[in-house]
Amino acid sequence: MPDPRQVSRGDEEILARALPGRHRFSDGPVEVGAAGVLDLGWWVFDDGRMVAVWRRDCAGRGLGVALVVSVLLVGPVPGAVAEEGDVGAGWAADSESYAPEDFHAAPYLGNGRIGTVVPSSGGGYHDYGEGVQTSFPLQQSRYTGTYLAGFYARQAVSQNMWNNTQVIAALPAWSGFTVSVGGKDYGPGVDPAAVQGYRQRLDFRAATVTTTAEWVPDADHRVDLRYDTFVSRSRPDLAVQKLTITPRFSGRLDVTDAIDGSAARRVTPVSANADPAQHLTSVGVRADGTQDTAFVVSSDETPAGMTGAALPDGSGIRYDAAVENGRSETFVKYVGISSSDYGADPQARATDAAEEGRSLGFDAIHGEHADAWDRLWQPAIDIAGRDDYRGWVRSALYAVLASVREGDRWSLQPAGLSSDDYGGLTYWDAETWIFPTLLALYPQLARTVVDFRAAALPQAESNARGYGLPGAMYPWDDGPAQQCASPAVCGFTEEHLHNEIALAQWQYFVATGDEAWLRSTGAPVIVAIANYLAARVGPKLPDGKYHYAPAAGADEYVSLTVDNALTNGGVMSTMRIAALAAQRAGLPVDPRWADIEANMAMPGDIAPGVPAEYLGYAGAPIKQADTVLLTYPFSYAAQGYSPADTLHYYFDRTDPGGPNMSNSVGAILSAQLDPCRTQDYLDRSAQPYVRAPYGFQSEARGDRSGANALGQSAWIFVTGSAGFLQGLLYGPTGLRWTDTGARLDPMLPSGFPDGMTVRGLAVGDTRLTVRIESSGTTVTADSGPAVTLDTPIGSKTIAAGQALRLPTRAAC
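Structure (tokenized):
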């Protein structure tokens, strides 16, 4: 009889097709927690997580691949071969004390279309009260919300309002089975004294929250509860929760699946209907000020033979269950969520998603979801010997990836889809702080940022016409409408945004080499912005210079200025790349662009080689990175300009209580200009802002992001998370997107003595691994066509399978 643990080449090929990605094989037996020692054949592992088993019959014929999704192994697995930087530990974060009033202890789940925060109890809706508020502009009590990309409430445009015409709407809460025993309920409002043996785990790798607790509602009843919750990455309209109940008594209990309208914000109820016979609940809402509707539809899988009764308001179903001591019962809800942004009949779309999920079952749906996340995790930033950085990188990258989806037409917001901080509006955060991180590792996701602005080009052109100007005028902050709400801020506030939009469009082309995209999408945006700015700066003044007034830079401690250095330097950049983009796309080139680039005014120096932040600036503290951005990302150069002195001057005056993304650009600039300080900036871009238990980042060290901040600091601050990652991607590697392609100039920060590795760096269709060590840097082309890189040793071309050796600059 053949050895049942001998895998043939044909088996390996079948496994590779069924389980794409990096997998390793063990010939067991394997000890798997409470399951004991299992020896069924060949176990397949992926970074310490058992994902499948290949079973054989006695004749050695393969019986197939069975997905194993209910067993998650936290540590290294016996028999699994670990690659460098690829270990099982560190992929999960735990909260082991029930803290229902700590909003940091509520994990975030998202698939880039649906985002939700799970309360400490495991599901449902919790409002933290007026003492814990959201950020500007809403400044309302913080709560565990569910958000759908593109679903926004609208308000009438008024001359007296702030810049935005939209605010993201919050949906009814979909998660949470309420368990009732003896007149008491287990849910977000449960008495903490009745909760024992508590643990909530966020598995970053599989984007799944598992909450376990022993609930003791009274002396006669004890119930073990387990909630497994995820928002499907493979199915954009689906969220799933499984409840496993193990009573320590015999009798009756109730389980209620309710879609809780208390969680909804800025919506009007449309319908609510529960059908116990079909185990189906549907709740619809309409975003205020619009005809846009969204539906949340839950399809329940319950123990055999169980019936339920509809709640009086039609928002859910209550199931009455007879239970036996020690016998576990399982309930699963498959929840479809969609809006009219995704089709004419969102109720039907949401219902189809829910019922298809139920037909396939929890294990299959969770398996494909975990596989989709596994593919996202293939790019990596590995820093050997630094467990703190490993945790920071994974939680930061998870927060970003949970907030963006390939192919959808939405950009990213400062808090992603985790809250309505900053109203869910799109700011410069998307282009300046989040986009570069995505561009380096996930260009397919970065495209959502640039395509969002391109889709809004007709509205931006309409905005400009409303002010009697040509070209495209984007608002400082608005939702998908991108409509100007008030002339007091749309045309005057932080107009550096236009330069950052144009730069991102150009960088996407440089990084991907997509000429067709540039012609159809990117170049029209860049040219329209250049035309607007050319009119905005007006004619030359008697000094022979173009001036920008009024304007405001990124330093939000100053409302209006004249000749803001970042804005004016950015205009020079936009004029230059507009000419390049227009030439490539066959669009007219305005000769004024070159004249503006050559003759744009800059404020005089406040110190040798250091331009003043704006005309009249006298050295006051600044809120966040502003003038330093001239060097990165804009590559500003002028006679007498000193990037190093500018870095030192302004960072010495940057408020440490301001928003946290400033330190990431400090890391990038210092790696180029003053490597001795790089490690300090990298540490400061994460450590002061990371909050237990899940390692997500807050916007500020304290409750407010700067002395003039309105509302409390944002949470979860995706902008800062992406900024931290950007510092690691562009600082040590020296990565820059030049007009001719990618440039690398590596250095090793002093705190990484064992080196660091970036895997999956994307240059065009080529994927690179960059391994930085003190002795030198190795760049390996892992896949794709040959690529040419600008390096310290000249222009070098490498093809797939080839490696390039570069010098590593020392930190000090």
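The chain has a mean pLDDT of 89. The radius of gyration is 27 Å.
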